Structures
1.
Amino acid sequence: MASQTLVASASLRRAAQYVRMSTDMQQYSIANQSAAIALYAAAHGFGIVRSFVDAGKSGTTIARRDALKDLIKTVEEGKADFEIILVYDVSRWGRFPDADEAAHYEFLCKKAGVQVRYCAEQFENDNSPTSNLLKALKRMMAGEYSRELAVKVGISQSRLASLGFWQGGPTPFALRRQVIDKNGNPQRILGCGERKGGGNSDRTILIPGAKREVAAVRLVFRLFTTKYPRLGRLRDVLNGPLNPCPGKTWTISSLFCILRNPAYVGANIYCRKARNRKGWKPKEDWVVRDQAFQAIIPTAQFNASQELLKARERVTNEEMLQHLVRLLRKYGKLTSGLIDRSMVVGSSQKYIYRFGSLAKAYELVGFTAKNRYQDVSIIQIQRLRQQLFEEISTQLEQVGAVLTLPKWLMRLMLVNEQIVVRLSFAPARGSATGETFWKLLNVRTKADITIFVRLRAGEHSILDYFVVPRLARIWGAFIVGERQCPPYLAKYHVDNLDGLIEALGRNTLPEEIWNT
């Protein structure tokens, strides 16, 4: 989002311009829109005093269009120092699937006494029946254009995927993206975040990466299918002296991603998720191209790993309880640490998900955990989350910031309509040796900052925090003890959130808080 304040002559009517560009299309470049708006303003006696710019933002939703949200907020709060909003055309205001949404945002401006004008349209936005009819038609056409374009792009990408070309997404570990020309001749290898360029005739495929990484993937599959079918045990082995990539921290989630990825047998699978990103498509609707890339894992070994993974997913509640009974007979007690180390039917988090809390699962097999390591129930976590949210919200208001919980962020917090914050609670756990530890699970979300909240053992109150930015790129599960903490996490440890609150209030992230 970009907002600029300009200077206009006192004799001109004050206006703001809103410009948006979703791609690098020359027709709708920011410069071209601004030039056309400037000519319109000069011809109609307007002086542009503010500029709201959304560069590289889709017009189908307002979610990521910070400039438009800032414009609407400025108008609604009565802080607008302009009386006209100039937009290049109806499509730049938005290509919303529901035309009423575009009309809603324009109505908010009109209600506040600020008129919206479309500079490149052949009608005046004067609220006449003709202009309203044409405007409604244009809005529907803009939304339909986006829908048709999405369908065309989807069909094109599916066709290219069926031919064996990589269609984007995170590059799997130990593989690299290589550009090939229209004749299939290999070109350069792309780095992280680099785009292929070179025109529409170039395509991208996957090739094996560094030899050490390829050897690591082969070791993961070999150990999983022959010696260590439990991911927790396999993780511990790989993080020890056998680590094929010194310096890399292996997690259960990273191992799971490797073992489930068909790219390692050369298969290119596309369109597995529904277009709305909610759920998976039936397998018969997937786009699959076998032998699209050079395989680094034998197909038989990959199939064996899939059978082992499926066996873990088919575990029933009764089988999970039977496993607790076996652990109780062997050790005389039950702890989350014992469950995580065994990993026969799943982690302790899986028990919490299935039964609501570990305490309830323990109760079903006749075991009562000591108060010191009594697990916090989901209801208690929800109460603590609501309490902490209210405290953070109050503190942010005191420093001039606003905290919200937009539905589109799925329980993530939004500060000043810019910074996404995630709360993750880590209850105290007990190890087999009687020591207390905490498991911090950092997953890939839209959050710019994740606040890990450590809870005191048995008290269900907050002990301290770990404030971890997404820029740190620390993913997976990490164990923190009472006196031990991984060095890459220690620098993000804080006793309170005062420094974070102050930095959020001043919008000085990320430099200050990362060094807290």
2.
Amino acid sequence: MNRIRLEVLRDGQAVTVIEPDGDVVRIGRSTAVELRLDEPSISPLHARVVLRDGPAVIEDLASGRSTAIRRGPERIPVNETSGPVPLEPGDVIELGGEGDAKAVQIRVHGETELDEPRVFEMRPIAELPGGDRAPRGGDTVLRTLCELQRRIGAADDLTGVLTAVVDAALVLVPRATHASLMLRDEGAANDGGFVPVLTRVRGPSGGSVAPDSPVRVARSVYRKVVRERAAVLAADAPSGELSSESLLGASIRSTIGVPLWQRDAIIGVLQLDNRAAPGMFQSADVDVLAVLAEGASLAVANARLIQRLELTEEQLERENRFLKGRERLRRGTAEIVGQSPAFLALLGQIGKVADTRASVLIEGETGSGKELVADALHYRSRRRDRLFVAQNCAALPETLLESELFGHKRGAFTGATEERKGLFELADGGTLFLDEVTETPLALQAKLLRVLQEGEVRPVGATQPKYVDVRIVAATNRSLEEEVARGRFREDLYYRLKVFPLRVPPLRERREDVPALSTHFLSRYSAELGKPVAGFSQTAMDLLCAHEWPGNVRQLMNEIQRVAIQAEPGAFVTPELLSPNIRKAESALATAGVSREQGTLREAMDQVERHLVSEALRVHGNNKTSAAKALGITREGLHKKLKQLGLG
């Protein structure tokens, strides 16, 4: 019983009738309540009836007076102990009545008991004029209808469509004084969820205008339209059966309700009232409004759909901007740290190729920062406002990698329960980064070549290709030339990818960047942990600079994260906090007597390296293979180091 009618009784007769428009009816002597009672036994704010989901309930508002429900012979108290009590049709609410005073009685009627309008005519939706059936009238009416439908179709938003519909109704039915439109609340679970959204009235000049004050709408009429799924013509509202408060309060003499529908669902009700004289509307008025409603139904449904799509698009755009902004902060150009000559040369190359369409192949050792370079290429290009998408080709087996990159149709393989877009489609207009591209299977390499040559993507299970504009940036820690020579990589794809190669130098070739990188990572992890760290001691920094860093920047980053966790708040990072393999050079630094005041950092590091290499060769009897193994480098690396240090 979501809708009720309340009748205030005196000597068993109804003296006041109210059919609530809202969800709450407050009862009392105050002028601010919805149902005012002047009896002295009633408190200013005595009780309230709440009509929300589920049955209507009554609750006492700490009135200090009596509140009860009379249900047949049973009397049910309503107070703080009982809390809200559900109401049933036929209940009589009793308020006050202490001592000799009589209680005020209010009878409750459920929706099924409400007085129905005096219906003169009712036609099911299937029998309404429309399509090939014209309304009764003539060519003038048809011309007017065509013009009004064009106006409705020309409206560019939902508000414009609704206004055009109600204005058209007032034009087609000259005897109407009010036109209202109720739309179904899409959040409601049943047909009762209709809300008035727009009312227009006939102005002094005869045209349609907005009302000067709120206009009450007769709920009983549009409820009947929805319940019966039919157009309703009712007249002489103030007499007989049309005595409900919603009609009496609105002074409605005659009314027409016509449904708006989409497929089998009623999405709204167009209601016209005459509040001037009784018995004014005719069957021809129902006909012409029904024809109007057929076109208006489609226009309203489309306008609401467009509104939802625009809201969804706006929300997605906001989310996209937020995620891109967060991604830039997390991994954008602010994290490109380094001032060494080798790294500055790399940044110069990035600047030259960033704003071109050329495919870029990034070569470098594991952990050297290849994805960060790809990220910089994207955010320094005109594609920065579109997506940057990364995929490690070694992380997925061939079948899953193909689906991930190219997408698939529903039913293309076992488990493909729905269609899915691939990364190429998601990155359309942006950049796709393929890390470890040498791990791509040969069969899949042919499809990659097709994308690079033609911009053509064919999802798994699809018969028609799709075309995308994606810049491909690939990366590898292997030699692509060797992979081609061994038959593990297509030569034609190799030439397509290596249009503009970029080599990321390993960290050992840009030791000058170790202090800046270490300070940067320490600041980041200190902030994440909420624990300030003062910085690095000179000896700790010297040890970091002396290390070979076979794992490159990633290894350094992990080392600094571990140090930040161990360090005491406000303290400096000292050598004992470093990993044992980093501290191996500590004795060598002491033996060599190196300090930061003795020449440049490069000279100091060369001196330390010269000492370490010489000691390794001495300990291993000048066996270069054993010395290289002890130093943690390859035999070729040792030869290169000897030549670099002037020992070879």
